[in-house]
Design goal:
Layout (H helix, E strand, L loop, with lengths): L5 E6 L5 H13 L2 E6 L19 H10 L4 E3 L3 H4 L19 H4 L3 H16 L3 E5 L3 H13 L5 E5 L19 H6 L2 H14 L4 H14 L3 E9 L14 E9 L2 E8 L1
Parallel strand pairs: 1-2, 1-4, 2-3, 4-5
Antiparallel strand pairs: 6-7, 7-8
Helix pairs in contact: 5-6, 8-9
């Protein structure tokens, strides 16, 4: 008799169409789908948006019911981090690539610890993550492999608005004016990817892209070309598959995105 397979879709709530796309993907790959909703405090620094992060649990559960999710796991902070909790995972490798970790040094330890707990609690055969958080995808993939967690991590392409903006719960922070500017990130990534694929010099193309992003009104954290598997810096097209990654602030909203070359 065939064993029932389980897919896990980890989320922090404030669900949008991108999350539902992950759920539908999961339902095609496994017999049962579990969606976790946990706003993980350990991946937020004191100055970040933990207190203001959107919380829409009733709506989230309604959407998941409509998507025929089999189980929604909504643990409390006390369940995930009970009194006396004293263990955390500190990942290296992709977690120390000088991208998100350079600006959010606390982030990947919080992610790795909570994802490991979710994998142990839910015991999924596969776990589905969006490619929008590309460095995170690489970190949790290595986490599962290194710790023999018996869960295969699968990345799903970023879901976008018609104008190219990557779907994100934090898009709700954008003002109407900022929302018209936000798609610039994807346009710049696309232009840079085309130029690099055509054989142009990576350093010059990235410098032009950084200028375009800044001129549009963003405060740029990074725009980088990295090896798609290792996230090591690349200087030429021949050095391997390339992923372009960007993070920038528009007003009070921090946006991230990435694209393959």
């Amino acid at each position: 008799m065939r064993r029932t397979t389980i897919a896990l879709v980890p989320t922090m709530g404030a669900l949008h169409a991108g999350h539902i796309a992950l759920v539908k993907f999961a339902s095609r790959r496994a017999d049962r789908v579990v969606v976790s909703i946990f706003l993980n405090p350990t991946q937020f620094a004191a100055h970040e948006d933990l207190t203001s992060y959107p919380r829409t649990l009733r709506q989230d559960i309604s959407w998941l019911a409509a998507a025929r999710t089999d189980l929604v796991w909504v643990p409390s902070v006390d369940v995930m981090y009970p009194a006396g909790f004293a263990t955390r995972i500190v990942p290296e490798g992709s977690a120390t690539a000088g991208l998100e970790d350079a600006f959010r040094p606390h982030f990947f330890s919080g992610v790795a610890t909570v994802v490991a707990k979710l994998f142990i609690q839910c015991r999924p055969d596969i776990a589905i993550f969006g490619e929008k958080d590309y460095q995170q995808l690489k970190v949790v993939t290595q986490l599962a492999r290194d710790l023999d967690l018996k869960t295969r991590v699968i990345g799903v392409p970023t879901i976008r608005e018609k104008d190219g903006l990557a779907l994100s719960s934090r898009n709700a922070y954008l003002s109407a004016q900022e929302r018209t500017v936000a798609p610039v990130l994807h346009r710049v990534l696309s232009d840079c990817a085309k130029s690099i694929a055509a054989g142009g010099p990576i350093s010059g193309i990235l410098e032009n892209g950084r200028t375009a992003i800044t001129r549009a009104g963003f405060a740029l954290d990074y725009l980088e070309a990295r090896h798609a598997d290792t996230l090591a810096p690349v200087g030429a097209r021949r050095e391997g598959p390339i992923r372009l990654l960007v993070a920038a602030r528009l007003g009070k909203t921090r946006l991230i995105d990435n694209i393959a070359v």
